[in-house]
Amino acid sequence: MGGDKVQVSPDDLRTASRAIAVLQEQVDPDRIGSMWSDQELPGSAVAAALAQVDTAVVKATQVMGYRYVEMGNVLNTCADAYHDSDLDAAKRLSAMGDLNPE
What we know:
Elements: H1 10-26, H2 29-32, H3 45-80, H4 87-95
């Protein structure tokens, strides 16, 4: 792939943005629901750990949802300011940084 170029148009960027919006809907914590019950092993260390799982799932899905919204906004902004290349889109997406910075 070293020298290969990808052809991208503003419509392509908007289509990608719409696809990402669908992903955002799929990571809705209310849609995923409760995954574990702390009643499985009442009083145990496992039950205590399971009680925290839903909170972690909600937080993780919220973060992912926000990231998808941000990616979609970046793609739409790039589509609106398109300059015959996708370099702006690549730079803006790269500027978002890591999902889980160390």
